[in-house]
Amino acid sequence: MHRPAQRQRQRLSRILVSAAAVPVILVASGCSSDSDSGSDGAKKEAGATASASKKAGGDKAPAVEEAAYGKLPEPCKVLSKKTLQDLVPEAEDKGKAGTSTDTALRGSCSWDSLDNNGVDGSQFRWLRVSLMRFDSDASLGSGAKRAQESFAKQVADAQATKDAKSVKTEPVQGVGEQATLVRYDLKKDKDTFKQQTFVTRVENAVITVDYNGAGLAGEKSPDAGVLSKAAQKAAKEAAAAVVSANEGGAKAPSGSGDKPKSDDKPKSDADAKKTDAKSDDAKSDDAKSDDAKSDTSKSKSTSKS
Q: Does residue 213 contact residue 191 with C-beta atoms inside 8 Å?
C-alpha cells in the first residue's frame, strides 16, 4: 500500500524540479540575446558614423590657386596712338569694339587701314587685339591653368587656318609668361596677305594679336619680318595694359564657375583672307572687312582707268 504512494511522491518531485529549471534557462537565454543585440546596434551605429565622416571628407572641394588678375582693360585703349599710327596709319576711327557678352572676361577691338595711291597701288593693313581672362574654379582648375589651355588652343587654331601657306611657328621670349608667333601667307584673288598671329599669356589672361598686310593693285607685298615685329610690339603693349589695369591688388574671385563662351575663342581671322571665324567679335570685324574690300575694288578700278 505504501509503495504506490512513494512512487507518486517521487514522480511529483521530478516534475517540480524540471519546472523550476525552465525559467533559469529562459532567463540565461534572454540575457545572452539582449547582449548580442546591443553589441550589433553599437557596431551599426559606429559604422554609420564612420561612413558619414568619410563622405563629408570626400565631398570637400580641393582649394585652387587664386587668379592673379580680376579685370581686363578696354580693348580699344590697350595700344598707344603712336603704335596705332605705325601699324594702321590710315585708320579712320579709334577702333571697332567686338560684341562680347561679358566684357569682364573677354573683349576685342579691330582697326583697318587702306593707303590708296591710285595707279601706284595701295597698302592694306588690318589689326585686331583680343583679350580673355579666366577665373579660378574648383571644378575647372586655377585661372592660370585655364589660361594655359586657352593659349595652346589659340596657337593651334592659327596653325590650322584654312588655305594658309608657308606656316611658321616660333616661341618668343620676353613677352608675358608664354608667347608664340604664328605667321603664314594667304592668297585672295591675285593678292597675297601676310598674316601674323601673336599669342601671349600673362598669368590668367591671354592676349591674341592678329595683324596682316598686303600690297594691292600692283603694289608690292609688305615685308613679313617687319609685320612680325609690329605684331609683337602690339602684343607686348597689350600685355602691359592688362597688368596696369590690375595694379592696386585687384584679384579675380575663386570658384566663380565662369566658363568661356563661344566668343571666348578669337581666331586668326585676317580680314581680307576670309577665314571661318565663328566668334561674335570676328563677325563684327568681317563687316568692317567688307567695307575695306569695297574700297580696295575702287582703288583697283582707279588704277585700271
A: no
